[in-house]
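Protocol step 6 of 9: fold each sequence in the batch and record its structure tokens directly after the sequence line. For illustration, a two-sequence batch is reproduced in full.

Sequence one:
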Amino acid sequence: MSDDIMIAANGVNKHYGNFAAVSDVTFEVPRRQVCAFLGPNGAGKSTTMKILTGYLAPTSGRVRIAGFDMETQRLLGSERIGYLPENGPLYSEMTPESAVNYIAKARGLNATRRRDRISYVVDKCDLGEVWHKPIYKLSRGFRQRVGMAQALVHDPDVLILDEPTSGLDPNQLVGIRQLIRDLGKNKTVLLSTHILQEVEALCDRVILINQGRLVFDGLIGELTKTEGLEATFHRLTGFLATA
């Protein structure tokens, strides 16, 4: 595998009894690429993302993150990942300050590095006004930004973001989208979203799955060259519009 390939899934399957949530999914994502991971609800996106991050073990297949096998070298691979799960759990009685500090310490950042990285994420995730408020008092958008700060605080090489802009207001969207663009200049970003306009605004490439299977993997221009992104999405996922 090339040193520039930061996410590699090879023949990944996940079965629950007779139900195949993910079937033979194979793809690679290089450094400095923002890649959309699309599919309808229940397509297997979140399951695949959990497998990539090591939160779930595949039934079969292999995943490498930054060259580390997530079966045999999971801790080393996890050190290189920042993960924002959909509706990610937060300790509601903590403040953003204590929550992000806790994650930074758990990631092994020393005091100087911790101070620098926390200053960075407070600014980039625009958390200053709520930094000392209990998380349970925060809006969904602010909670989402706390989750993003936790994913970024250790400066990971790979970001796996499940619905990163969920719950954000239009002003917050602008800031987070710009942050993702900036991160993609040096890092690998795999993001799941239902907002197709976001894909066109942010992403270089699209991986599309349907019913657990890969149905498209290519540059966004290839997906939209003959029809719009929405029409292509509907066609590849078997949606038939009715009058």
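Sequence two, same batch, same settings:
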Amino acid sequence: MNVNEYVVVDHVEKAYQLLNQDKKNQIIAGGAWLKLSVKEVNKLISLDHLSLNYIKEEKDFIEIGAMTSLRDLEMNSVVNDLDHGLLSLAISKIMGVTIRNLASIGGSIMGKFSFSDILPVLLVMDCKLYFHHRGEMNIEDFMNTRGLERDVLTHIKIKKQNRKSFFKRVAHTALDFSMINIAIVYDDSFMISVGSQPGMAMLCKETMSYLNETSEVTEEVIKEAVIIALNELNLSSNLRASQSYREVLVKTYLKRGIRQVIE
């Protein structure tokens, strides 16, 4: 990646203005994934001096600054109480501690990476994003917005809940990107998300609707839910896995996940 100028800003408005001066200007968060999607940068804008590295507990939600490292989230006891530690578990599976110390939650969200193990988890949690210019935005709406936002993500909020949860990622090695990942939460209703299809994570809305309208989740219901999920997902092949193998993984771990959260 070629960078012509590195700029450290002292106010979020300055970062926003610089970002929108030129399409080749980019914000650097942790910097772990930036070079995967950007090759040429005129001005690389650092948010290091904006005090966006924090985890704050409120009555009904947790507020997390966009520059908070994945490792800080993984080790935080308050975050670990969310949905039986779902987010902490997913983060702990991301490569090694060195990468998790570097990567930030904001950068992990803004990149909209199809291989992300965090996005499917945030989709099934009650997560809101907060941008400097646009303001509040639901995580699903953000992911369904084409392209990347030319805005500065300042923080996110996650509703405090402790539902039963399940997370599974499958990769060739611990240091490789996922070939599939699945996140499920359940209390009175199911929330199910699948990522690395190899496309970006998505909520399985038809599957969720079927399960949530069923009075009793039997083995037959689970089998039908898996069929519905395979029909609504966009599973395909890439260098990491074939479509048929991804289908086998979804069948196996979706069944296992549903069984686990209803126990």
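Proceed to step 7 once all outputs are recorded. Observation for sequence two: The chain has three domains: 2-46, 55-159, 165-262.
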